[in-house]
Amino acid sequence: MSTTAKIKKGIKYLLGTDRLGPYFPVYPDDTFIVSYPRSGNTWMRFLIANLIHSDLQVSFVNIDQLVPEIYLITRRELARVPCPRILKSHDHFNPRYRNVIYVVRDPRDVILSEYRHELRSRVIDDGFPMERFLDHFLDPAAHRLPGALENDEPFAPWGEHVASWIGARRNHKRFLLVRYADLQHDPHTELKRIAGFLGSDATSEHIARAVELSSADRMRKLEKNEREKWRLTAGQRRDIPFVGKAETGGWKEALPENCVAAIEAEWGDLMTSLGFELSGAGRGALHPPAAAAKSGAR
Hints:
By secondary structure, the chain is α/β, with parallel strands linked by helices. Helix content is 43%, strand content 7%.
């Protein structure tokens, strides 16, 4: 690191404007919303923010203050968040996180959502082969995407990320597993479970209000009006929204069969244990090589 860079880093530290490192203070009453990327974490943040902050209009403009994302908030900003804090994370298992709401989504849907995200962010171009993207999805460290920044730290693969939390905490009383599919099917029942986990005495009316204000349609409208005001959408492609179809099972129509087979062959046992029904395409299948372009993503 150059002398100039060191000075800038020191100034940011003194001012409290530096980003959080991995060892930021964690308090016993902190609750972390954790998931592998593109698994419904932002939707969960909106649901909880609308549940807890019923006096506010929750939007993309203030969601990062109401339910901050670690590593994208400064030390000074985090110090202003009142306790008990609810924080967003995409970390694999971290024993310092004592209270965790873990959102898990079918990896066959996750890969489609992640593909769209990388298109929107211009990390990959239109027509990028889904089979090549699959290589990255199964092993992000070994298969970096063309437009990825050199200092971007790749996430662990979906299976490793999920298994790290499920294996360590599945039956722990302060660990709540929420399946994206269940949240979609019956958001009121799932949000009631979440409210109970948070110690909230929210009424049925409060829960219904939070669900309505966090609907995919409303979030799309908010995104359309606020896309340049939110860090994750500002400057990105406008023809691909951050809030997509928000569906379960879209992979059945959109994901090439050989990609389905590879994912099921890689993580079938874990998927089955989580209630994701296998298509059977992965039986005896091997990870296919990167091949001709057929993205199938929508």
